[in-house]
Amino acid sequence: MFPVVDPPFYAITYDMLKHTSVEDVSCMRLLVTMGGLVTDDNARVLNDDMEPIPGLFAVGNVQGGRFVEDYPFTLSGASHAAALTYGYLTGKYLAEQA
């Protein structure tokens, strides 16, 4: 663990008293990153010009674009499946580059 000392800092507020119903899907929004890092088909992280950043890959909950508007909490294993699939595809891509 290390302190976070350099701004900018970002945070969200979440009022648990307002979002207590299972029918209110907004209560599920904090389960995954709704934004995340923009990647290509090989999970290479893209810069602002949509060009790959050499040597930087993202899979799992840091990878953006998987859950654009809402998390499908009724679909068990969706996050794990995406992480496993992109982990495999990224490993395959890297092996082919060697």
Number of strands: 2
Count of individual domains: 1
Could you name the ranges where pLDDT drops below 50 across 5 or more consecutive residues?
Answer: none
Write the element-wise H/E pattern from the N-terminal end onward.
EEH
Provide an overview of this structure.
It is a single chain. This protein has 98 residues and is of the alpha+beta class. The chain has one domain. The protein has one helix and two strands. It has one helix at 78-97; strands at 44-46, 52-57. Strand 1 (44-46) and strand 2 (52-57) form a beta hairpin. The longest helix is centred in the C-terminal third of the chain and has 20 residues, at 78-97. The mean pLDDT is 78.
SSE blueprint and pairings:
Layout: E1 44-46, E2 52-57, H1 78-97
Antiparallel strand pairs: 1-2
